[in-house]
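ugh ok so i messed up the first submission bc i forgot one of the chains. this is the corrected input, ALL of the components this time, i swear. 635 residues overall. if the numbers dont match what u have on ur side tell me asap before i send this to the collaborators (the ones from the other lab, u know who)
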Amino acid sequence: MFFKMALRNIWKNRRRSIATISAVAVGYMGLALFAGYIESTRAGLAEQSIIGERLGHLTLVKIGYFSAGKIDPEKFIFSNDEIDTLKQELNGDKDIELISPRLDLSGLVSNGKVSTIYTTEGISAEDLVKLRGKYADLPGKLDPSNPAATAMGEELATILGLKQGETAVITGTTASGLMNALDIEVGEVFNTGSAGTNDKFILMSLDLAQRLYDVQGAHRIVLKLADKAMTESKRKELEEKLASRGMPIEIKTWNELSMFYNQVMGMLESMFGFLFMLVMVVVGMSIFNTMGMSVMERTREIGTLRSLGMQRGEVVKLFRVEGMLLAIVGCLLGMVMTAANTLSAELMNVTYVPPGSTEAVPLSFLHLPENIVFYFGILVLIGMSASWVPAEKAAKMPVVDALGHV
Amino acid sequence: MALIQVENVRKKYQLGQTEVEALRGVNLSIEKGEFLSIWGPSGSGKSSLLNIIGMIDSPTQGVVRLDGTSINGLSDKEITKLRNQKIGFVFQSFNLVPVLSALENIMLPLQIRGEALKVAAEKAMHRLEEVGLSNLAKSRPDHMSGGQRQRIAIARALVTDPSIVLADEPTANLDSETSQNIIELMRELNERDQVTFIFSTHDQQLLDSVKRRIRIKDGQITAEQGEAE
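and heres the new structure output, hopefully the right one now
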């Protein structure tokens, strides 16, 4: 009875209902598309951090490296023996696909005429291939047969006027604080994807980095796991395991280390929070207004229903069902609109250049089932709540007054 | 024992700064199966009395008993339930729910009561046949004439087998021929089922057909014609 009456009243006032349903649908679509964009960005940035930034899933360092590593780098270096011991501890773990030592250095790079700063990461060419997996052939590769060959940021190569196959000199301090210099070869020029690193990054073999730094060891040991979802649980497990073996190791996850990921996601989530509040208010006010008008127009009907024996709570229910149905229909329409827009963006191959990026990326949406259900649920709840106030007011009106209402 | 006993009922309304006394100590006893009208000029208090008997309004003072039990002090929930069980309403403007068909309108009090859909539909169809409009079962009120709407309203009032049907000016919006038909229909139902009909009216046609007439003026019963059955 409630559904039938609610549906028919929605149809009866279809012009007003269409306006309300449209507001809900546009609100739903706005939330769903933005959330889909955020999730797509989250997934893309996660992959970018884990593979593109070569952060893997977990990074193991000696305790204090992140806070004091720059002041006293030698103190926080894993020696080859320590690396071997760690590998022995971790090798039996089937969840760990790769154990990759790294060295992080910086200094000056010169073409003989011009010098500029560089940052570098030393990684073994084999580890890079394993870390990248299906993306092994992406730009930014190392040649396992040529330890002197590096992959240089496109902008940096342009500054120095260097092309593939040409050589340069890099200088930097050793672990003990002395100056050192090495010849490198530009094995590949590649776009790092980030405006912040494209003009200063050089990717080199671990062997070359160790020679420049004059050390046999690594600053960090990066782990690639079989599944990203186990990152947090594996961190806890390893922390406990290594502590019990007397190894004072600090473990960070990829998302803790990727500043770019955190900045972008922080900004997007703030924007989404604002949009979410805005949609809630617009949808709430729209349904409140529609139901308020409906209650006012049907006050005599409410009086009739009460005189026939309908309880106050049932009158409220009648209008809440109507508000709920408006929200449900709006959300369903919103879902269709979301799907249409998502499909259109994919078919039209819409691209854009994200802030801080050097290349256009496709505009894509990742619609998570939990998000689809959550926004549906929250808007239906808003619909029911927004119709509650006018319905409650109508139900509390004395029957005789409601019947006399014109 | 009287079906309805109204004892020294007073009703005051606040109209802005002014207090209006609509009923001034009304005493009335109505037996089962009566066909009576409360009549008087506009503003005399007849609708107020009918509303209080129908439990859609409460007296400022006095007692109303239904089947010997006082309804004073009952909660809104209890009164609403009692209204559904014991009282049928026929309104001057018919007050049918516009989005429901004739049959659905008649089913409404039964559905409110919680009767199964099939049972409600059967009972409603039976009442619809009684008022001679079974061919309009699926029609909406806006496709019916005034007389047809009032017949539907009567069927709706009777579908719960109430003890009392209260009709506030039931013929006021109808032409004289339709009014006569409606009066005859209510009279038939009264005689056949012994349902008590109480009207508020100043329609002479209706007044001529009732067995008992109670005249009310300035909130007081001033005259009574006919006998309580």
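quick check: Chain A has a mean pLDDT of 89. that seems consistent at least. The first strand of chain A starts at residue 58 and ends at 62.
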